[in-house]
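Next up, a specimen:

>
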Amino acid sequence: MNDSTTVLVVDDSRVSRLMARQFILSKNAGMRIEEAANGEEALERAKSVTPALILMDVNMPGMGGLAAAELLRRQFPHAHISLLTANVQDATRKRAQDMGVAFMEKPITEARIHQLMSVLDL
């Protein structure tokens, strides 16, 4: 892993974004963290970075997580994308699985973030 590894955190909750940032940096202080509040902003932010990991809330105003994840998957086929949600319906899980997108249950915890980063060697 190098110091330029980027994580894109997408959530309409500023608190959730701050928590994710804190947990990611507690595991690896060299990570570059980019934030977005919705799907449209995520697509715009992603134009200037190559994220290794995208943490994406499912329910957001404007473009939601699934639609944004689908577009980001095409743009960054090697990035790991994980949807963040408290309520995963079977249809949502199936659509995400078909796109090669994982799930992380909310609430976001340091242990969950660290486990994901360890599996990805970040």
About this structure: The chain has one domain: 6-119. The first strand starts at residue 6 and ends at 10. The chain has a mean pLDDT of 91.
